[in-house]
């Protein structure tokens, strides 16, 4: 399989688009936690009850096309290889938690993979919508549409005073978790982010790494999300997150200007060194790849590197993860083999773009 055909088949269609504020906000996600009434939460449910939940979803919501999502497919975790499950995690379609006990766990996916409903994770259902750039309101609208559709045929656990009942008390109420994935290299380089993070936490928001709770920040990518779900409306939660993210965007842009004005030569040297290493290295560990890709993405967004679209870095940040590398290779790889494959894939992708640029300019 060629790299181009693999990219077209492997990457979620929504990843290929550039949404609002995409130079800083990589993606927006809205997730709703829901549980069935009179059925124990997954942590306490029997295998027969979990199996029945998965069966009902397959019967009710596959086969017919929905006006907002098209036809949905049920993907059972028990039917996947370990590497296929890892790819779904790397694409943010399912959580690592869902894949650890695969029996009677599943995901309901739309064709463009902007919608994913995790089944029997911590809750019976976790409806999530993923969109490129800064599109929280649009994500909420789509998640609500799926929520409404499911509630036409399912009875959700709901209390008039507390709201939707969930396995984790922090999700009780709206059951809403809204988040954005942000690329904040300038705030890191100017050492401002560590001062900003405590203020964000005091506002009832939480900052996590690239794969959410328990993960570390790689490639200067940070996930900002709400903590409060009880006592506020869905629209208010999204509005509060939007306000904080808007300020973070302004801070990041100011920090980029500061770097350009105060340390332009050092900044350019850092960016072009990373570009050179990505273009020619034969071995590349995952953390270094993310760090170098972050530098180059900053260079593209600031106009320092020209004729390389930002989407390449979005692609490579996903495709250089262990699951994707092994999927592309068609076999399991040892860590040192993955490091070699990672370097090779990055070189091939950058070379492909350079060839396309040369071809486009060949008529001059």
From TrEMBL:
<feature type="binding site">
    <location>
        <position position="92"/>
    </location>
    <ligand>
        <name>ATP</name>
    </ligand>
</feature>
<dbReference type="GO" id="GO:0005524">
    <property type="term" value="F:ATP binding"/>
</dbReference>
<keyword id="KW-0418">Kinase</keyword>
<comment type="function">
    <text>Catalyzes the specific phosphorylation of arginine residues in a large number of proteins. Is part of the bacterial stress response system. Protein arginine phosphorylation has a physiologically important role and is involved in the regulation of many critical cellular processes, such as protein homeostasis, motility, competence, and stringent and stress responses, by regulating gene expression and protein activity.</text>
</comment>
<dbReference type="InterPro" id="IPR023660">
    <property type="entry name" value="Arg_Kinase"/>
</dbReference>
<comment type="similarity">
    <text>Belongs to the ATP:guanido phosphotransferase family.</text>
</comment>
<keyword id="KW-0021">Allosteric enzyme</keyword>
<feature type="short sequence motif" description="RDXXRA motif of the pArg binding pocket involved in allosteric regulation">
    <location>
        <begin position="338"/>
        <end position="343"/>
    </location>
</feature>
<dbReference type="InterPro" id="IPR022415">
    <property type="entry name" value="ATP-guanido_PTrfase_AS"/>
</dbReference>
<dbReference type="GO" id="GO:0005615">
    <property type="term" value="C:extracellular space"/>
</dbReference>
<feature type="domain" description="Phosphagen kinase C-terminal">
    <location>
        <begin position="24"/>
        <end position="255"/>
    </location>
</feature>
<dbReference type="GO" id="GO:1990424">
    <property type="term" value="F:protein arginine kinase activity"/>
</dbReference>
<feature type="binding site">
    <location>
        <begin position="208"/>
        <end position="213"/>
    </location>
    <ligand>
        <name>ATP</name>
    </ligand>
</feature>
<feature type="binding site">
    <location>
        <position position="126"/>
    </location>
    <ligand>
        <name>ATP</name>
    </ligand>
</feature>
<dbReference type="Pfam" id="PF00217">
    <property type="entry name" value="ATP-gua_Ptrans"/>
</dbReference>
<feature type="binding site">
    <location>
        <begin position="177"/>
        <end position="181"/>
    </location>
    <ligand>
        <name>ATP</name>
    </ligand>
</feature>
<dbReference type="GO" id="GO:0004111">
    <property type="term" value="F:creatine kinase activity"/>
</dbReference>
<dbReference type="InterPro" id="IPR014746">
    <property type="entry name" value="Gln_synth/guanido_kin_cat_dom"/>
</dbReference>
<dbReference type="GO" id="GO:0046314">
    <property type="term" value="P:phosphocreatine biosynthetic process"/>
</dbReference>
<keyword id="KW-0808">Transferase</keyword>
<dbReference type="InterPro" id="IPR022414">
    <property type="entry name" value="ATP-guanido_PTrfase_cat"/>
</dbReference>
<protein>
    <recommendedName>
        <fullName>Protein-arginine kinase</fullName>
        <ecNumber>2.7.14.1</ecNumber>
    </recommendedName>
</protein>
<keyword id="KW-0067">ATP-binding</keyword>
<dbReference type="InterPro" id="IPR000749">
    <property type="entry name" value="ATP-guanido_PTrfase"/>
</dbReference>
<feature type="binding site">
    <location>
        <begin position="27"/>
        <end position="31"/>
    </location>
    <ligand>
        <name>ATP</name>
    </ligand>
</feature>
<keyword id="KW-0547">Nucleotide-binding</keyword>
